TrEMBL record:
Transmembrane feature ranges: 12-32, 47-65, 86-107, 127-145
Protein name: TRAP transporter small permease protein
Subunit structure as annotated in this protein's UniProt entry: The complex comprises the extracytoplasmic solute receptor protein and the two transmembrane proteins.
Domain of life assignment: Bacteria
One MF annotation (Gene Ontology) recorded for this entry: transmembrane transporter activity
Record GO biological process: C4-dicarboxylate transport
Keyword Cell inner membrane: yes
Membrane topology: Multi-pass membrane protein
GO CC aspect terms: plasma membrane
Functional note: Part of the tripartite ATP-independent periplasmic (TRAP) transport system.
Residue stretches making up the Tripartite ATP-independent periplasmic transporters DctQ component domain: 23-149
Length: 167
């Protein structure tokens, strides 16, 4: 199971790298076209914005570990392990409930955008913004998995040197 998850993580990281490399190449082409050939290309800005949106939510869903996300852990780091476990459970439930409550309205809003298209490339905006729905779904699933782990009676909080839970 771990090797399958490692394989999936490598693929997700590779997709993020490809998107970032494409952004870099498009940005260089835009600079070359504008300042060397004096012929700006309009589609590059729209494609860069779309790729940036996708790489942010793709990486947030598939590439980043929990310790890579922003945390407000001043209190968490200064309580005993039993209290840390309670905090982890409360945080997981909060994320699941909060993101879960927003999932269907968000997906409804994203699918509403099928009637609109981007200005230059004429891409349907529901395709452009669908990555946020994917992000919400993956984060919910990750926290459901974590909640199951935290509720397991054999689960013990193991902090690394930064006070973050080991994954």
């Amino acid at each position: 199971m771990k090797s399958i998850l490692d394989w999936i993580k490598r693929i997700a990281d590779g997709v993020a790298v490809i998107m970032l490399a494409a952004m870099f190449l498009i940005f260089c082409a835009q600079i070359l076209s504008r300042y060397v050939f004096n012929a700006p290309i309009g589609w590059s800005s729209e494609l860069l914005l779309t790729l940036w949106l996708w790489v942010i939510f793709w990486a947030g869903a598939f590439c980043l570990q929990h310790k890579d996300h922003i945390r407000f852990d001043l209190l968490y780091l200064n309580v005993p392990n039993k209290a840390k476990r309670v905090f982890l459970i409360i945080a997981a439930v909060g994320v699941i409930v909060g993101f879960g409550a927003s999932f269907l309205p968000t997906w409804d809003y994203i699918t509403f955008y099928k009637i609109k298209k981007s200005a230059i490339l004429k891409w349907r905006l529901d395709y452009v913004f669908s990555i946020y729905g994917v992000f919400l779904g993956v984060i919910i699933l990750r926290y459901v998995y974590d909640l199951i782990r935290y509720l397991n009676p054999n689960f013990e909080v193991e902090d690394d040197k930064d006070g973050q839970v080991k994954e």
